[in-house]
Amino acid sequence: MPFRILKRLDRGLLRDIAALDAGLFIVGVSFGAIATSQGVPWWQSTAMSLFVFAGASQFATMGIMTAGGGLLAGVAAGLILNLRHVPYGMAVGDVYWTSLRAKLIGTHLLVDHSAAFALAAGDDRRRARHAYWTVGVSLFVIWNLGSVLGAFAGQFIADPKALGLDAALPAIMLAIIMPNLRDRRTLAAGVLGTAVALGTSFLLPAGVPVLLALVGLVVMWKGANRNEETAA
Amino acid sequence: MTMMIAILALAAGTYLIRLSGPLLRRRMTLSDHAEQVIRAGATVVLLALAVTAALLVDGGFAGWALPAGVLVGGVLAWRKAPLALVVVAAAATTALLRLAGVA
């Protein structure tokens, strides 16, 4: 009986991951297509997807480079966007911190969605591990297939904006982290942090505002002190 | 050539960034509460990422079609709808609004 419940849980998880993969496949296609339209050879956009495997930074760095913004500016913009992976790694790193091989591969597979799915599993470590690896590996395959396909046949594929895909991606993220947001204090920290991120978005380079959202966590420190006081 | 250097530099730097989270985390001994805060931290960043992506594009307001679609998806997610439905509803809302001429 418990086995059957577990199986059903995992089937729901797989269906969710399939929906995520479908969405990001099209984003991967659009990455390859944009690269080609900017005159970047297919093997370079493919190498980028393989070795960087972080969509937003790939778009940013490639965009700056092809616009003649220079090497330093291009790489710096991408790296700043990717700094958000530090808090992800701190939160879910233990999920893949097992064998050396798992550490090395798991590190490369740390992206927004693999972190979010692992977090959503909460204290169920088996489910967290299952989710992290399934999302990470499937996204890696989908992302790279998509970007190769886009590099060659991008002009035949519909514009992601016309499909409303730019709305689907944040909605997917909201759906994945929803279980964690049901915790009141996490939600309070999230709302405050998001306000900080929005307020600073007009002043700071992309990638920094979402990190500043961590300021929202003050809500939780306060709670800890109060708990200690009542305990004392 | 410069593009290839950029790709390799971004790849190496990103790998080190990804590596630094677990390495930092393993250097600390944390209370249960601190661990909760770290997990909440990742959730907070993901929420901020989703909301800023819904409202802002290239440093300006994204227009109404995009946040409207994300909102529809978010409400469905809150009502525990399956992810496939969230994706389709969010995308369809935004796509139809754009088709109707809403930016």
Description:
The complex is a heterodimer of chains A (232) and B (103). Chain A has 232 residues and is mostly helical. Chain A folds into two domains: 2-176, no CATH class; 183-232, no CATH class. Chain A contains twelve helices and no strands. Chain B has helices at residues 2-26, 32-55, 65-78, 83-99, and strands spanning 56-57, 60-61. In chain B, strands 1-2 form a two-stranded antiparallel ribbon. In chain B, strand 1 (56-57) and strand 2 (60-61) form a beta hairpin. Chain B starts with a helix and ends with a helix. At the A-B interface, helix 1, helix 2, helix 3, helix 4 and helix 5 of A face helix 1, helix 2, strand 1, helix 3 and helix 4 of B.
List its salient traits.
heterodimer, A: 232 residues, mainly alpha, 2 domains, 12 helices, 77% helix, globular, disordered C terminus, B: 103 residues, two-stranded antiparallel ribbon, 4 helices, Branched-subunit amino acid transport protein AzlD (chain B), membrane (chain B)
